[in-house]
């Protein structure tokens, strides 16, 4: 049901008996002012033997009705052989529904007539939001229009996994609020000295924003029933300078096992990073979208392996990596640096620059890959850069 517009709610009655059924159906549980009158909440019916009848009610939710699901109960007021009450769920939607991605506010018109709206966007504290197109838009019936916007951090602002963006669309007398949680993390600019890539977290890492991966919602479906944070969880931190992106991942893993190397490391304990160098957010893995596998094969040296998106797959010779394991705390530390030159399209890094990114952790306890955890999305299921979160250089 659309707020401010009349709609039809219909109930079907099936008579499998040999005699006609007569009675009156009444809708209860919905606000009375959604009906033209009290009498409109009740409708008589007659269903002949072995027949079907449809009873329809006209309902018009108010323009300020709350968006969401409402429970309506239909009862039969017949004195003889009344029908059993039945409960229905009715969804109330605005005439324009709103979806927020990291690149645009998308408006969908659910009416059979054009609808216009004015978009306003409220950024999180410490961020700016700028609409890249006119805020006033008209949406044709059944169509969707995107209003692009740009989000940027003020100097020194941090994001640690997510940002909350809010706003509203004003359409005539209707105000449609919206809120969205965007996957985002900031990388800290390096001061005097870059980290030493040795698998040991020096003091310089402590101030870098933390990206936590410890929630069941981040776990792949087949792994979720057996997953525990002790079995697999992590926190990651990012730093950057004019030449490189630095990554530190502390991974809690009760059993370390990596029987593969190179492009097969995803089958064992490993880290996968995917980057959309220009943060274009296109579907699939388009141009300048890159995927890395990071791991330490059992008995071998740690590797950064260039996979999908790179002109030539293989070890990243220009990168640096160290992996250490502490069996007492069941913690594996991955520390690495990635030259921005390897991510063609990223250009010369600068404060405020946005790069699309997704992070995936694989788990193998020695009997094959159990599953994975993923921050944002776009690696583990369908390869899709449109689902990546955003890494901000700040």
UniProtKB/TrEMBL annotation:
Alphabetical list of CDD domains matching this protein: CBM9_like_5
Q: Which domain of life is it from?
A: Bacteria
- Sequence ranges assigned to domain Alpha-galactosidase NEW3 in this UniProt record: 1-75
TM helices/strands, residue ranges: none
All copies of domain Carbohydrate-binding, residue ranges: 197-393
Q: Please give the Pfam families that the UniProt record associates with this protein.
A: CBM9_1, NPCBM_assoc
Which Gene3D superfamilies does the record associate with it? 2.60.40.1190
What biological-process GO terms show up in the record? Answer: carbohydrate catabolic process
Q: Which GO terms describe its molecular function?
A: carbohydrate binding; hydrolase activity, hydrolyzing O-glycosyl compounds
Output this protein's name.
Carbohydrate-binding domain-containing protein
